[in-house]
Amino acid sequence: MKASLGITMLLLLTTTLAVAQHGSAPPGPLYPEGYAGDTFTGTVTSTDDLSDSVTVESSHGKKEYFTGRIERPCSITTRDGKAMRASDLLYGSGLILYYQRKKNYRNEEENVIFALTFISYEGKPIPEMRRLLYPCTNRAMRYSVHGSETP
After folding, report:
1. How far apart are CA 39 and CA 144, in angstroms?
2. How many domains does the chain have?
3. Is residue 109 part of a domain?
4. For residue 55, is pLDDT > 90?
């Protein structure tokens, strides 16, 4: 009896730690139609110019990696005056990535990043009240509480 209780507690704790870096977006900001609220928080470990993808490592708990493709250049202007692409992200920057699972042109599931928020930049944390949501899409965005939208 004690053994099964201990195994159950260990399983619950392990499951909780494994998903700690996955989160749910708060209601209120503008999100695309059908967004379920999926986010991933971590630090940039690599980028790929060809696929415009970014890989981040989880910020806490067990190391977990997330790779997603930025849907369109983000609404952040770079120093050269262009919209930000994945390769413009600095390694080690802390991000919250807002994403949806979608099928690509090969009919394979992939993570498509439609917005991001910086939580740290050049090693300095960004206070929560100063964090901004930067869209990386050209889809219409509406106020959403994940599934129920208002015009």
Report:
1. 15
2. 1
3. yes
4. yes
